[in-house]
Amino acid sequence: MVKPLRRPPAIKVLEAAAALGDRRVRILAGGSAGVWVARVSSSGRPREYLVVVEPRGAEQVYAYSDDNGTRFRGYVGYPILSLMMVAGLLPRDEEIERLLSGVNWTLLNERMRSYAKVLEHLRKTRIPGEKWGRVERFMAEVLARLRGIKVYYDPSLPSKALA
Q: From what superkingdom does this record's organism come (predicted)?
């Protein structure tokens, strides 16, 4: 059943950028007939997510990912965000991608159990003080762009895209 997805927590923008910085986004099909397909690996556990993004005009995207945030929490998960960045639907910042490469998001999220605490930890230990403003602007820019796009979860996309 197709259903609308909510906007993600802001930190998921950084998790998506880190996936790109770590080269954990493996494109399987790119843009043919407007459909993008990728495998996105988790930063911690040996998990891999199948992701499909199909833009339908400038303000509507149908998407699929088997990550927990998308399937069980109903928001646009970081694997979808990262593929939307690759597809040019959302902004990218390669410097931020480099700064966040190597972060074990799974471990941080499990240990801290709070996105606010994870953000504070990154600000104190990973992102140099003069770069933090850039990180905040990037998150805001991606979320602002995402507000103008209706993203729908469509569980039928993998069978269509991989047929």
A: Archaea
Nearest CA to 151 among 73, 58, 72, 86? 58
The pTM of this model reads 0.96
What is the maximum span of the chain, computed from C-alpha positions, in angstroms?
48
Tokens 């556990």 belong to which residue?
45
Main-chain phi, psi angles of 126, to 5 degrees: -115, -35
Enumerate the H helices of the chain as residue ranges: 11-21, 68-71, 78-86, 94-100, 105-112, 115-125, 129-147, 157-161
- Cβ atoms within 10 Å, residue 150: 14
pLDDT tens string 80-105: 999 999 999 999 999 999 999 999 99
Assigned token pair, 112: 């801290």
What does each C-alpha distance from 100 to 17, 57, 129, 160 come to in angstroms? 7, 31, 14, 33
* pLDDT of 160 strictly over 90: no
pLDDT in tens, 38-67: 999 999 878 999 999 999 988 999 999 999
Q: Quick check: 63 and 51 in contact, CB under 8 A? A: yes
**CA atoms of 131 and 38, how far apart (whole Å):** 30
